[in-house]
Amino acid sequence: MGSPADLLDIDSELSDAELATREKVREFVDRRIRPNIARWFADAHFPRELVPEFGELGLLGMHLDGYGCAGRSAVEYGLAVQELEAGDSGIRTFVSVQGSLAMSAIHKHGSEEQKQRWLPRMATGEAVGCFGLTEPGAGSDPASMTTRARFEPGSESGDSGGEWVLDGAKRWIGMASFADIAIIWAKVAEPQEGGGERDRVRGFIVPTSALGFTAVPIEPKLSMRASVQCDITLDGVRVPADALLPEHPGLAGPFACLDEARYGIVWGTVGAARDAFEAALSYAKEREQFGTPIAGFQLTQAKLVDMALEITKAQLMALRLGRLKDAGRLEGHMISAGKLNNARIAITICREARTVLGGNGITLDHSPMRHASNLESVRTYEGTDEVHTLVLGRHITGLAAFR
C-alpha cells in the first residue's frame, strides 16, 4: 500500500525494477536507521559502520556506469535517496557526497587511471571521498574562491614529473575528517594565447593524509547532526602531477557535479516531507482531545490535506525530472526549479507536521522537528533559494541578476 500522501497513485507510474529498488532501500532504512537515528542525532554521531553496507546495497555511485558502479537509472537513484532521507538528511548526505560529488567528479573529469584506481574502491565504501569547493568567503559565488594551486616542475634528471602545491581553505565540506581523498577545486594561473596568464578553476585528487592537509569538524551544529561537515586547511599541500583532473577545466567541472547532487536533493526532500507527514498523521489518529482523535478536527485535517497535496506535487516534479534525466533531456534550470520548490515545501511541511504533534513534537521521539532542522541545511547547500530563484529568473527573462 502506498503512502496516504500519494493522492494521484504516482506509484503506478513506477516500473517493477524501480519499485524493487525503493523497497530494498526502505527496508534498510527501517532496519538500520530508524531505530538508531534519534540517538545518532542527539549525540552528533555519523555511523561510519553503515558505509560498507551502503556499498553492499549498490548505493555509492549507483547512477554511474562501469568501474564497479551499479549503473542504475536516474529514477532508481532518486527513489533510493528519497528513502534514505526519509530516515535522515544527514545519512542521505553521505551517499550524495560520495557518489554525486566525489565519485562523479572522477567519473566525469578524471583520467582512465584515476577512474580505475579510485572508483571501484569508492563504490564498495572501502575508500571515502569528499568534495572541497565551498570556502569561508565563497559560498554562492565559487568564482571568488581564493584557494590556489601552482605547479613546480620536476628535476632535470627526469625522475620526477613535478608536483602541484595547494594553499587555501574550504568550509562545510562533508566527511572531510574521515575521508581518504578530497576533490579540491583551486585556481591555477594558465598561459593565454598572445601572452599573459588567466586564472582557471581546476580539480585535484588530494589524499587527506598529505602533509599540510587538515580537516576539523564544525561543532556544535543545530542541523545535520548525524553527519559531519568540516573546515579544511591546505597549507602547502603537495600532490603529484597526475593528481590533476584533466577533463573539463573551469567552473563547468564542479558545477556538473553539483547538478548531480541537486538532482538527488529534489528527491530526498520529498522523503523527509513524507516521513514528517506520516508521523503527524499517525499521531493525529491516536491522540485524543475533547473526546475524539485530533485527526477528526477540521483544522487538523486541513493541515494534513495541505501537506499531502504539496508532497504529491513535489513527487510529480521529482519523477518528471528523473524521466528527463534518463532521456538525456534534463537542463540546469529544471534542476533549479526542483531544488527550489521541493526543499522549500519540505521544510514547510515538516514545521507544520510538528504543530500537529504539539509539545511532544519538540522531542526526538518524533521525526518532524529533526527533519525541519536538517532541511535548514539542505535548503542552503547546493544553491540557496535566492541563487536558484535568480537562475530561474535568468532563464525566464534572459537577463542575469547575479551582478
UniProtKB/TrEMBL annotation:
<comment type="pathway">
    <text>Amino-acid metabolism; lysine degradation.</text>
</comment>
<feature type="domain" description="Acyl-CoA dehydrogenase/oxidase N-terminal">
    <location>
        <begin position="16"/>
        <end position="126"/>
    </location>
</feature>
<protein>
    <recommendedName>
        <fullName>glutaryl-CoA dehydrogenase (ETF)</fullName>
        <ecNumber>1.3.8.6</ecNumber>
    </recommendedName>
</protein>
<keyword id="KW-0285">Flavoprotein</keyword>
<dbReference type="Pfam" id="PF00441">
    <property type="entry name" value="Acyl-CoA_dh_1"/>
</dbReference>
<dbReference type="GO" id="GO:0004361">
    <property type="term" value="F:glutaryl-CoA dehydrogenase activity"/>
</dbReference>
<dbReference type="InterPro" id="IPR037069">
    <property type="entry name" value="AcylCoA_DH/ox_N_sf"/>
</dbReference>
<comment type="pathway">
    <text>Amino-acid metabolism; tryptophan metabolism.</text>
</comment>
<feature type="domain" description="Acyl-CoA dehydrogenase/oxidase C-terminal">
    <location>
        <begin position="257"/>
        <end position="396"/>
    </location>
</feature>
<keyword id="KW-0560">Oxidoreductase</keyword>
<feature type="domain" description="Acyl-CoA oxidase/dehydrogenase middle">
    <location>
        <begin position="130"/>
        <end position="237"/>
    </location>
</feature>
<keyword id="KW-0274">FAD</keyword>
<dbReference type="InterPro" id="IPR009100">
    <property type="entry name" value="AcylCoA_DH/oxidase_NM_dom_sf"/>
</dbReference>
<dbReference type="InterPro" id="IPR013786">
    <property type="entry name" value="AcylCoA_DH/ox_N"/>
</dbReference>
<dbReference type="Pfam" id="PF02770">
    <property type="entry name" value="Acyl-CoA_dh_M"/>
</dbReference>
<dbReference type="InterPro" id="IPR006091">
    <property type="entry name" value="Acyl-CoA_Oxase/DH_mid-dom"/>
</dbReference>
<dbReference type="InterPro" id="IPR052033">
    <property type="entry name" value="Glutaryl-CoA_DH_mitochondrial"/>
</dbReference>
<feature type="region of interest" description="Disordered">
    <location>
        <begin position="134"/>
        <end position="162"/>
    </location>
</feature>
<dbReference type="InterPro" id="IPR036250">
    <property type="entry name" value="AcylCo_DH-like_C"/>
</dbReference>
<keyword id="KW-0809">Transit peptide</keyword>
<dbReference type="InterPro" id="IPR046373">
    <property type="entry name" value="Acyl-CoA_Oxase/DH_mid-dom_sf"/>
</dbReference>
<dbReference type="Pfam" id="PF02771">
    <property type="entry name" value="Acyl-CoA_dh_N"/>
</dbReference>
<comment type="similarity">
    <text>Belongs to the acyl-CoA dehydrogenase family.</text>
</comment>
<dbReference type="InterPro" id="IPR009075">
    <property type="entry name" value="AcylCo_DH/oxidase_C"/>
</dbReference>
<dbReference type="InterPro" id="IPR006089">
    <property type="entry name" value="Acyl-CoA_DH_CS"/>
</dbReference>
